[in-house]
Amino acid sequence: RVAITAGGLQGTHYWDRLKALKLMSLQRRRERYIILQMWKLLHCTTPNDIGVKFQEKNRHGLKAIVPKLVKTSLQHNQSLYDASFAVLGPRLWNTIPAHLTRVADSEQFKIQLTVTNYFFTIPVTPRLLDTLARTRCWTGIKTNQGGRTMPMAH
Asked: Are 34 and 88 in contact (CB under 8 A)?
């Protein structure tokens, strides 16, 4: 609150305030934490009880192997699978640049992951909000309990 008031950011959108203050969203901080945990798994500084495996790719650096899911599983199980650390961790790890996968020191890894703006190069505005803001479809619309959109009463 103090930063918003002091920085003259009253009335600005949440995503614009994050950018102006050079802060990461809660989602980006969570993703950063998951990538740091993956680094710890790679370097055996935390137990690898879920069995995450890494594979060296010449051009792409160290890549984590995403476990397979049975194709006939229910949609609910697919969603749980996609949200699990065993899947999300390797997927996020595989997005970082090859030179970061080879950093051996934890402090250097944190610095290069954050300070060198890797996370700040990724757009922070969610695609849906970005689209709605451009088309201005979001104003005057609310959803009912069934999830259907309805015009708001004036």
From this structure: yes
Q: How long is the chain?
A: 154
Give the pLDDT of residue 147.
46
d(CA 2, CA 5): 5
Question: What is the distance of C-alpha 116 from the center of its chain?
Answer: 17
Q: How far apart are CA 92 and CA 104, in angstroms?
A: 18
Please report which confidence band the pLDDT of residue 131 belongs to, taking 50, 70 and 90 as the band edges: low
67: number of Cβ within 10 Å? 14
Q: Pick from 21, 25, 28: which is nearest to 5 by CA? A: 21
Per-residue tokens: 86 = 């065993």
The phi and psi torsions of 96 (rounded to 5 degrees) equal: -80, 155
Task: Quote the pTM value.
Answer: 0.68
For the record, the structure tokens of 110 come out as: 């944190």
For residue 66, give the nearest of 47, 46, 45, 38 by alpha carbon. Answer: 38
**What sign for the dihedral angle of Cα 106, 107, 109, 110?**
positive
pLDDT tens digits, 85-108: 989 999 999 988 888 888 999 999
